[in-house]
UniProtKB/TrEMBL annotation:
Gene Ontology MF terms in the entry: kinase activity; phosphotransferase activity, alcohol group as acceptor
Domain Carbohydrate kinase FGGY C-terminal: 239-422
Pfam (any one): FGGY_N
Family: Belongs to the FGGY kinase family.
Protein name, entry field: Gluconate kinase
Domain Carbohydrate kinase FGGY N-terminal: 2-206
Superkingdom of the organism of origin: Bacteria
Amino acid sequence: MYFTGLDIGTTSTKAVVFDISGKVLTQKSISYEMFHHHPNWSEQNPDEIYEAVNQCLAFLDKRSLLETLSMSSAMHSIMAVDESGKPLTNLIVWADNRAIEIGNKLKASSEGKEIYHRTGTPIHPFSFLCKILWLKENEPEVFAKAHKFIGIKEFVWHKIFGEYEIDESLASATGMMNIQDLCWDKKALELVEIGEEKLPKIVPTTFSRTKQDIKYFIGGADGPLANLGTGAMGKNKLAFTMGTSGAVRICVDEYYTDPQMRTFNYLLTSTQHVVGGATNNGAVVIQWLKEQILQTSISTEELIEKAQKIPAGAENLLFLPYILGERAPVWNANAKGVFFGLSINHTQAHLTRAVMEGLILNLYSVGKVLMEKFPVDEICASGGFAKSDFWLQLVADIFQKKVVITDNVEGSAWGAVRLALKSLGLEAKTSAQTTSRIFLPDTTKAELYDQLHQKFERLYIKLQDEF
């Protein structure tokens, strides 16, 4: 029997076909663009993404591989649709910071803090909550005409089944769902002045519908599913994901919000909480460095290979990677990227290494918060970066923790399938979670990276009022 995980991501939609052990049999990926029509805006065409989904499914159907399908999706996207389901807006994605002023004002208020502790979602312009407030204030005609406010997975699900439904995992990342009651939060609804009928119906992550003999499972959000897919379950295992963006997360059985509002609490299922933090700035920063700054024709792989030859610390060159503002742990949409310590001796390779180290140092700032609360002893890595030994060794050296890689790095897609298997009453064999590679920290670099991280955080503090 074939099991497909459909992962609707920021830069592409990917359909991955597994057997019951988690072995990847085949996959199909279709890419699409992100648009920045105005400063701080990040949008996509929802119809283009739906077409990518169709192309992926047609590829599998033609090969008679489409039997069951479970869905994963990037979080924090929102769009308004009319009564016919037609988009009234583009898809406003997680990287969009147009609601900066709204987010900053709400975050500083007692009401914002109260909503954070009830919903588990930090107050930031990336959230569903702040984006609806922005539409209400800046596009009142669209706000008034909106039949529903939905994300990209709900748009695709409605296209297939004609129903507006959202899984409890994605709903928990909107900033509008009460985590403990598993329903739309009354205070959040009052704040944006809408009723729950304007939002999709919340359903479990194992919820399914059938069409043309294919069973579709609604699945969950890509971050929590990556924990499940990589085996990062329990207080001692930290999931580390880096694709276009990045995140570190721990899956626990308890609800936890941070007194300083540095971390999120999302759901994998109604009883499994995923605590962590995500960054806007992942591999997209490497792409920016190559195309916009270095403007070089050599491949990203060649740049990284050259960076590997540069000493740890990039010879006193430090990079704050906030080119898209930032989520965890600073939650500052105004933050900017900074190269600090440039000298005449620095080369392309130095800049590349500094960027790579800056990305990991930033996620270490989140990981450090989690490791103060939970007894982490290993890191489970997934995402596109997990195919690079150099990236993974950097994680091990900066976190000073063992990094393990499973045979299957398609964590979110396999996590979605594992939810489907559970619903079907099938037991997933564990070969997909068999460790294939282990990266041990170089303890001789511990002090260097500790000092570099302290400098990283001091530099942000000194500059934050200047952004």
